[in-house]
Design goal:
single chain, 3 helices, 72 residues, mainly alpha, elongated
Length: 72
């Protein structure tokens, strides 16, 4: 019998591969927010630390100018 490896495939940071995230495009920011409006952590999104901080800033900017809701 073959042994199963319990490791999961490492998630790739979407922004390192070339995707852009801007506060003026809330439809792209929604993939980093759960259904209650909270920002998803790095371990779920797979982003690197640098880009996770950038995504958080963009989400907070979009919330400040009412493009995205704070919480539901």
């Amino acid at each position: 019998m073959a042994e199963f490896n319990n490791r999961r495939k490492k998630k790739v940071c979407m922004m390192c591969t070339g995707a852009k995230v801007d506060y003026k495009a809330p439809e792209t920011l929604k993939r980093y927010v759960n259904e209650k409006g909270k920002i998803l952590p790095r371990r779920i999104t797979g982003n690197c630390a640098l880009h996770q901080r950038e995504i958080s800033k963009q989400i907070k900017r979009a919330r400040a100018i009412a493009l995205m809701p704070y919480t539901r």
